Structures are given as C-alpha cells and as structure tokens.
## 1
Amino acid sequence: MIIGAGVAGLTLATFLHRSGVECVVLERRDRAYLQTVRQRAGVVDARNVQMFERVGLAEKLLAGPVAQTIDYRTDGISRIFNIIGDDASEGRFCTQQMLVNNLLRVLIDEMGGEVRFEVSDVTVHNEEGTEPQVRYTDSNGAHEITCDYIAGCDADRGVSRASIPDGVLTTVTHEFGYAWLAVLVESPVKGHPVMGVSEHGFVAQLPRGPQRSRYYLQCSLTDGVADWPDQRIWDEVRRRMGDASIENSIVHEKVFVPLRSVVHFPMQHRRLFLAGDAAHLVPPTGAKGMNLALFDVDTLAQALVKALREHDCSALASYSDTILPRLWGYQAFSAWMTDTMHDAGDPSINGNFRQMTARARLDELFNSETAARLHSEYQRGTA
Ligand code: RFL
C-alpha cells in the first residue's frame, strides 16, 4: 500500500509495477486536481535523471535540457556560475506538475497501475506480529486492505507519520525566521536563472516553462497575500534585481512559504516506511525537496523488490540508515544556500558581520575551483 499520489508515491508505484510488485496507491484528491495544481519544483537533478534513465523512463517522463548556469546577482551585478560537470550528468527541465502528469499517464494509462482517488479517513494499522492493514472510505463505503508493507508518501500533514506511536521518532527542526512569497508569472526567464542578493532582501527568478517563470521574494513571516498586491511585487522585483527594465506581467499564483528544515527519523517503523516530505522538509532555496523524495523512493523500491522477490529484508531493515547520511548532506547544502543568500542581502536580518561573511562565501564560488566543484556536485545531486 502506498499512501499519497505525489511525486514520491507515484514514482514508487511506477518502479514497483515495472518490477512486477503489486501495489495500490491511495490519494485523497481527484486526478484532475493533481494534474493542475502544485507548481513547485522545476528541475529533476542529474542524479535523478540518471535514475530515470536506468529504468528506461527518462524520455517518457522528463522534458528537455535545463540551463547549467546560475546568475548569482549581487546588488544588481550579475555573476554567472557554470555548474561544473560533463553533458552526461545534467539535470533536466521538468516542472513537478509535468512529472506528476507524466507519472499518472505511464502508471495508470500505460501500465494499468491502480490509484484510488478521493479517498478519506485513511488509517494505518501496523502492529507487531500482525500483517499491516490500511482502512479508508470512498464513495462506495469503507474498505480494509491487508498488505505486506506500507509506504507513507503523504507529505508533512499526512496520516502515515502521525500513525507512528509517540516516542519512536526523533524530530529535528530549524526555522530560518523569514518566508518567501512564491509567485508564478506569465513571463519567461530571459538569460540565466537568477538567485539575487540585495540590501532589500532576496529575489530569485527560475524557469517554469517557455512562457512562465517563478519569482521568489523574501518576506516577513507575518506577511500575508493582502500585503503583496501585484504592483508591490513588480516594484520589489525591479528593486531587488537592480533592473528597472523588467515589465509587469500576469501573476497567476501567490504562495507563502515559511523557510524551515525538518527531519523525522528513523524513517521506518515496523512495516511502515516514510518517503519524501512525510519524512523531511528542506527550504526550497537549494531546489532539493522533490529530488530528495525521488532518492528515497529509488532506495525504497529496490529494497522492497529485494524483500518480496528474493526474501532478503536486509536493505529494507537499513532503509533509514541508507537515506539519512545523504539527507543530512543535502540539509546542510540547503541551509548553506538559504543562510548565504539571505544573510548576504538585508543586514537587518543577521547583521553586517553575517552579511559580509556570506558575501565572501559567494565570492568563493567564483574564486575557488574546489568550492565551485563541491557546489556543482550538490546542484547536480551527485555529492
Ligand atoms: P507531495 O507532492 O506533497 O504529495 C503528497 C500526496 O499525498 C496526498 N495526501 C494524502 N493522500 C491520502 N490520504 C491522506 N491522508 C493524505 N494526505 C496527503 C496529497 O494529496 C499529495 O498528493 O509530497 P512528496 O510526494 O513527498 O513530494 C515532495 C515534493 O512535493 C516537495 O519536496 C517539493 O515540492 C519541494 N519543492 C521543490 N523541490 C525541488 O526539488 N525543487 C524545487 O525547485 C522545489 N521548489 C518546493 C519548491 C516546494 C514548495 N512549496 C510549496 C513548499 C517550491 C515551493 C514553493
């Protein structure tokens, strides 16, 4: 049983299906909702492109190449960082929504996989010595499914992690103290994706298709949508980008994202395994949340196949131990990106000392081949 048909749940189901392992996905939303909302991630990193290539799905699921450059703009002055690596290890453009759409098509329409949409009251029963069960309700009434294993892919507010008894999990949290206003707009990135440092706060512009892009603007945790009418957004974008020539365009969506890091571990309890946002959150500054979810389910799918096909449960037993060291590395990278891009900007956040040392860290990316190489490995997901 897989709970949640986001990127993690659908990828896991697709991989298991390909290996001949039966599974059912339960999703509280309907298919149309999944296909039209959740415009979040934009790039599948190189590590995960290689994963989809390995299972022969890259061409079906992913779109074309993505810029291997980042404009680390400081007070309006551009510096173009070239992500180091060969052509064979590049990330690919693919919005999260596009990936979910393609996974739904491949899993359900091409492979005949089973996703039960619009379910409610999902409960997880995972007692020692009995086979796990998942109960849920849909328009046909109440159901109960007995299974071998449960994958909790229902993100931070789902039922899977919440079903684990108190005292089993340790939770480590870090709040960064500010938020982002994420705005989807009807104008493309011209040139390179921008991560912008400015005295007025952080700004980014990242590609989201040939006609659209997403701007991120640092804002206060207490802000709300009403504080950011469209005109204020465009005025701040121009000010923080240091580019008066940017024109207003249509704003499609505004979302507030408090920046925080969270890890719940171990990522397993008896026969329940957590993957993706159900187990960990990273601030979107490093663009790694979806990519970490993909690493989890790659590891979990291989471990489940081994357990069910070869009756070897060793990889399942060490699932959490396999994920966590790499996860902490990417938590550190995401925190580095977040601290550096925000401390280097508005000195009222963390003071002038932190502003200058963060700017020195940014300079290092351009002055040191060693720093540039490590940064590139994290950007590619191959560190
Ligand atoms: P999802 O995608 O949220 O899917 C969870 C699914 O579970 C369902 N669900 C339930 N189903 C049944 N019963 C229940 N009780 C249920 N409760 C929940 C939900 O309806 C949903 O369909 O989690 P998953 O699969 O773990 O995937 C994680 C990613 O979605 C997340 O990490 C990324 O979006 C993070 N993220 C980014 N990641 C990147 O790799 N690169 C990026 O550039 C990037 N940008 C972002 C982001 C996240 C953002 N926000 C909104 C937090 C930008 C933003 C603004």
Note: The mean pLDDT is 95.
## 2
Amino acid sequence: MATGRVDLDGNPIKPMTICMIGAGGFIGSHLCEKLLTETPHKVLAVDVYNDKIKHLLEPSTAEWADRIQFHRLNIKNDSRLEGLIRMADLTINLAAICTPADYNTRPLDTIYSNFIDALPVVKYCSENNKRLIHFSTCEVYGKTIGCFLPKDSPLRQDPEYYVLKEDTSPCIFGPIDKQRWSYACAKQLIERLVYAEGAENGLEFTIVRPFNWIGPRMDFIPGIDGPSEGVPRVLACFSNNLLRGEPLKLVDGGESQRTFVYIKDAIEAVLLMIENPARANGHIFNVGNPDNEVTVRQLAEMMTKVYSKVSGEPSLDSPTIDVSSKEFYGEGYDDSDKRIPDMTIINRQLGWNPKTSLWDLLESTLTYQHRTYAEAVKKATSQAAAN
Ligand code: NAD
Ligand code: UDP
C-alpha cells in the first residue's frame, strides 16, 4: 500500500511494523509519538515501564489505537522477544542503563544491560534477516585526543584534535578502575558485534550515536517521579535544583563541555533512518548539534536565566555551588572532556541538520518542567517541612 509519503530518493514508503525495545523511555516516547502522529507505521512497543507513553496507549479510541501495542517485558529473560522481532520489519533497540551515576556504582548491571542483554536482539535480527537500528552513544569516543596535549599547546584549538568523526576518531577510555567507562566499553563492544554481524552474516544495521539529546520527559525528578536519592542526567539534576530553589551543583568545576540537541530535531534524524534504509544501512551516525556547545557551568547559568523567565521566580544570588565528583558520583567517576559531533556522514547520507538553538530548546523544556512538576515539588516540600 502506498501512503503518499516518499523517501529521499522519491520512492513511495510502504507502512512497516517496528519492534521498538525501550519504547517507554525518553527517546522511545518521542519516537512513538512521531511515528503515530506523522506516519502510517505500526509500533510493537516493548519496555518494563509505560508511564511516558500512557498518553499514546489511552484512550482506546485514539486514531492510532490499532497501530500501537504495548508489550511489558524484560528482554533479559523473556521468550516472547524473538516472536516480536519476527513479526516486525525493523527492530529499534533503545533499552539500556544509561545514567552516568550508575556506571561506576552499578558497573555489572551497566555492562550486562548494554552488552549481554543486547546480544539476543542482535542475534534474532541476524538469524531472521530483520533490519536493526541499534542505539549506541557518543560516549564510545571517550576523551578527545586534544585533552592529552600540554595545556598551552596551540593544537588544542585545532578541530583535528577534538571533533569526533565516526570513521576516523579513536575510542579513548580511562583505566579499568575508573568504572565510569564500563558503559562506553560495553556500548563499543556491542557496536563491534553489530558491525561484524553485518560484515560476516549480512545483517542490515544502522548504529546511532546520540550526543546529549534533551527535552521533555527526560529521566525523572528525584522524590517526585523517581527515587529521592536517584541521580539523573544533567538536565533533570539542574531542573530539580531550579524547581526546589536550590543552587545547581557543578561537578569538578563544571568545566566539561557538551553539545546539546533538542529531542524533536534528533527524532527527525531517526525517522529519516527508518524510512531510508538504502541510505542508512551499514552506517554509524553521530546525531547532535555542533553549534550548541557550552561548558556545564555555562549550561547552569543559562538554565537559571531561562527558568527565571518561564517561572516568573527570581534566581538565587549564588545560583551554583561546586562539588567534587567523588562526593557527587562516588569512587570511579571520570568524565568526557568535550563532545563535538562531525556531521559529514549524516549530512551526506540523510541531508539532516539540527535546527533548534540551546536557548530555545531550554525555554520549551523548562516550560514543560515547570508546568509538570512545580506544584508537586511545592507540595512535597511543604509536607516535608510539616513532618
Ligand atoms: P531511557 O532510560 O529513558 O530509556 C531506556 C528504556 O529502556 C527505559 O524505558 C527502560 O525501562 C528500558 N529498558 C532498559 N532495560 C530494559 C530491559 N531489560 N527490558 C525492557 N526494557 C528495558 O534512556 P534514553 O535517553 O531514552 O536512551 C535510549 C538509548 O539511547 C539508550 O541505549 C542510551 O544508551 C542511548 N543514548 C541516549 C542519549 C541521550 O542523550 N538521551 C545519549 C547517548 C546514548
Ligand atoms: N553534571 C553536573 N552537575 C549535575 C549533573 C551532572 O555538573 O548535577 C555534569 C557531569 O559531571 C558531566 C555533565 O554534567 O560533566 C553531563 O552529565 P550527564 O549526566 O548529562 O551525562 P554525560 O553527558 O556525561 O553522559
């Protein structure tokens, strides 16, 4: 059946069935939303949780109700997985433990989740000749070459020493006792396995390396929709501090640099991969926004300004405080110094470019955070004070 949709080469796109593992997470929820509202494709949504896609599963009268099925299963130990992969034309694997606070404190769970648990997914796709889009991470690049140069070396300013390229940059991790790298290393090995399945057994694959995708529904706010002692990724940590009127904590001075991309821009790139297999198969893609680079300290300052604008509340006189990584994350933490994605391959294959500036994406995300959480945080704080 033709749908009126055409791919980048002008060919009609046929409706497909997609087995999306990890569909209940941050990226999965946005991808499900996009597929249901803008395409004719069907989604077999697999996850252990579905809170972030509840609005897509109910009510049963929604116009897309017959195009999404939720399967609550843990891919570690569920024999239904292969059947779902066989029913689908394409499998997208998003399932992972992917919050840095876990990498050095739960290294075994991190390695099992990112490598061992992903193995059957790769195997079932390969054995059943099914296409696979596997989510890896920009963290597989580890540290930049530039960070090992002397502090005053002019080469540190040369993009050759810091821009991260899929086909030429090395993967540079710290020593084994820096367990931060357990995640990056497990992701690297599963990338190599997927690549080898492609080379030796003809698996049709695409590997995605997200560079700090952020937006609504990312992670959780501790004590509201996640554990009070939990440590989410930086967007949710800083949102939590802003909602509670606390200073934002800068780990080791907040000197590390990141590029942030708006989730809605990034999802456009994933949809292009889904609908253009001839251009996406066999490739590894950086997906990020090289123009949105800041230090973590600058991110904190910008989020403080934006939150004050969207909430109408004045910011603190001292909006940030410094904490050591040992205090914040515990023993074995280490950090990526700088992450700028090279965009040559994704530009050439899919013509994709991000659009949203850091200020704009923070404004829409913090408006969402304020609307969703401000009341609940106020209630929780006044209850705690009363006790
Ligand atoms: P997320 O934690 O919000 O989503 C992951 C989902 O997978 C969760 O809903 C979780 O319940 C599910 N899951 C985990 N283990 C499972 C299992 N055994 N069985 C069934 N479901 C399971 O994370 P996200 O930000 O949406 O990330 C998705 C993928 O993208 C991950 O592979 C992550 O490593 C990668 N990634 C994301 C970013 C980013 O910027 N968000 C950056 C780098 C890499
Ligand atoms: N970070 C911080 N304060 C926080 C949370 C994170 O300074 O409350 C820093 C962290 O040390 C890292 C950066 O912010 O340098 C990004 O952290 P994130 O958890 O988003 O993951 P990463 O980009 O390292 O994968």
Note: Residues 358-386 form the longest helix (29 residues).
## 3
Amino acid sequence: AAPSTLLLTGAAGNMGTLLRPRLARDGRILRLLDTAELQARPGEQVRTGSVTDPDAVAAATAGADAVVHLAGISGEAGWDDILAVNVEGTRTVLDAAVAAGVRTVVLASSNHAAGFRTRDDGVPLPATVGPAPDTYYGWSKHAMEGLGRLYHERFGLTVVSARIGSCFPRPSNARMLATWLSPDDAARLVEAAVAPGTRGHHVVWGVSANTRRWWSPAEGAAIGFHPRDDAEVFAEELLDGAEPDPADPVHHRVGGAFCDAPLGVPM
Ligand code: 15L
C-alpha cells in the first residue's frame, strides 16, 4: 500500500516548505521533523528535534512507512558542520529507518555530488555518472548516496537518492533554465520514490522537463518519475535577449558556480 505515515526531515526548510502542501493526502499522515518549530496542519504531526540527535530521530521515525530526508546544510559550509549534519545526520536517519522497519528512504542528494561533471561526460548525462563533488557540501551529498547504497545492500531498505537540481518556486537565473526542479515535479518525484512498486536502490536526477535540461530523465522514468514542468516559460524574462553560451563554465559544468566557490566557506 502507499505509505500512510511519511516522515519529512528538515520539514521547515526550503524543500520541506514546498513539499508539505503537495504531499498532503487523505489517509496519509505527514510527520514533520525539524529543529525549527512548526504548526501542525490537518493530517500533520510535528516533532521538534535535530537529525544529529539519535533519540529524537528514532522517536520521529517509529511507525513511519517512508522517510523523505531533506534535513541538512544546503550549501557550502565548514567541514565539521558538514560532517555532523549532512553525513552523521544521514547515518542517524538510516539507522532509525532500519530499526523502525521503514520500507523506503528518499535522500535529498544534489547535483553538486557530481558538480565537476561536464557536458563532455555525456548529454544526456546519466544519473549514474560517477561522483565529482564541487565543494565539501557536494562531497557530503555523495557520501549520503554511498550510505544509502550501504543500507540498501545490508538491510534491504529501498533507497532513492535524488540528485536535485535547483528546487525553488521559480528559476532565478540562466543556469536554472536547465537545472530547475519545480515544486510540483519535486512532489511527483517523491510520490514515485515512495510508491509501493519502487524497490531497490536508485540514483536519479531531480530536474523538471526543461527544454534546456541536459541531465538524463531515464533513471527517474525507471521509477515512474515523469516531470511535467518546463523552465522555458521563464526564459524570456530571465535571459533578456542574451542566449547563454553552453561553453561558459557555469553552463558547461553540472555544479555551475559552486565549482569556483572557496572550500569550507559558508555560502
Ligand atoms: C543545491 O544543492 C542547493 O541546495 C541549492 O540551494 C541550489 O544552489 C542548487 O543546489 C543549485 O545547484 O542550483
């Protein structure tokens, strides 16, 4: 059956805020975990705590059918923080998922796990392309994917790591015309990942059906993720007549400007 209790970690963050109303369903409980306090809406349960606190995570995970792990530092930061929140936090969530008998864990990975991959590595670029992190942050996202694979192999957990592009209400620059993941498509991705028919271990790109997309839709389609939105509707206002040059490093590399951001310096 479709999961009736879905735990969202990092529910107060950017993606949690966008996904919350879109994942609400009759017969489903959305359990929200965050360090920030949240107000429960109908069909929701709120738990206040950090993914760095194993007891809080275990309590929040008990009775959940699926976990959508969004909690984490979402850009470059100092090494110790990245390690504690993104890496150890993910291990804590995966341990709790196994202990609670959860079927599926969706991990919010990022394009920055493969940020130094370029158009020369393939167009469309497979989601299975090897890691090439562009920051400590991107490295932590690849480490998360690796943990997901480990817990899948060891414990049979279904794990979907989504290498998310740019998930915002609207694209806000020329790069995002290719990398945008619309909030509605983000919800479609989560629904596909937690659907009963999705089992095993998957790494997929989290990106909309953008005209300028160059990251492969195939791995997502294999789990039933069929994005519908296209950032191209925003092209005119974002480009203002100036077509981007695909050879420009910002458009040539998966990770765009992250590839040039100083390591360990919070964004
Ligand atoms: C990410 O991983 C960040 O969390 C997000 O804020 C955006 O910067 C995004 O990547 C992107 O590449 O646009």
Note: The mean pLDDT is 97.
